[in-house]
Amino acid sequence: RHDFSKSGFSDRTVIICDQCEREYHVGCLKEHKMADLKELPEGEWFCTSDCCRIHSALQTLLLRGAQPLPLLDVDVIRKKCDIKGFNIGANTDIRWQLLSGKTADAESRLLLSKAVAIFHESFDPIVDATTGRDLIPTMVYGRTVRDQDYGGIYCALLTVGSSVVSAGILRVLGSEIAELPLVATSREHQGQGYFQSLFSCIERLLVTLKVKHFVLPAADEAESIWTKKFGFTKITSDELHKYLNGARTTVFQGTSTLHKPVTVPHVSSRETQGSR
């Protein structure tokens, strides 16, 4: 049903899952034996054990901090850089990590500011039609603007030493689906395998979280890269609606939605030889 109550606590009160961000009537939760709430819970609330499990795993990853890039991914970067005439030293520290603007400390906020700069290098400001505010920093820092809550967004980063070279905004909408609304690599590091390696880390994360589907919005000029290089395909609105099952993805004007099942990423011999 589409009606809801803003005053008091009743069956028509709406509660939102803190992981998948789906909205539920309190009465519907009770009717479907999902939860029998007597009042709005304090703190975080999750609609299913899957959402609770995913949230816990993501929080653990946040606390773990930057992780060394798997050797297979480092090898991809080294070989692509060799082909382009760039020298990556044997002791170069390449890492990836997940950050949340909601819980970021000063050091993490500095990294997020570098991610914002990379996104702005690649994209024009994404302006909210109502407020006129640029949504890129809003999403990266997980802020809330009017009725738009981006607190469930994480930022995946690839760093070389202290430099952020590639970034992606990630939102996990429960066990069925995750989305990657924005990705970018700094201009001086494009075509060197950095985002390919970061994407592999994100895919492996989704595999461990047991997420089934991966979607993203793609502009026409970027569509062939996602389909040919990363294995995405176009998805119809009906198919997307079925996967979302009440969740909402980020929509940008002038983009189409691409989809792929979440699978364990592999690196082919062609990729390690620097094919694009």
Concise overview:
35% of the residues lie in helices and 22% in strands. With 276 residues, it is an alpha+beta fold.
Model description:
The chain has 276 residues and is α+β, with helices and mostly antiparallel strands. The protein folds into two domains: 14-47, no CATH class; 53-261, Gcn5-related N-acetyltransferase (GNAT) (Aminopeptidase, 3-Layer(aba) Sandwich), CATH 3.40.630.30. The protein is built from nine helices and twelve strands. The strands form three sheets. An eight-stranded mixed sheet has the order 3-4-7-8-9-10-12-11, sandwiched between helices. β8 and β9 (177-185) form a beta hairpin. The longest helix has 17 residues, at 106-122. The chain is globular, with a radius of gyration of 20 Å. InterPro entries: Acyl_CoA_acyltransferase, IDM1_C, Znf_FYVE_PHD, Znf_PHD-finger, Znf_RING/FYVE/PHD. Keywords: Metal-binding, Zinc, Zinc-finger. Residues 123-261 form the Increased DNA methylation 1 C-terminal domain. Pfam families: IDM1_C (PF23209), PHD (PF00628).
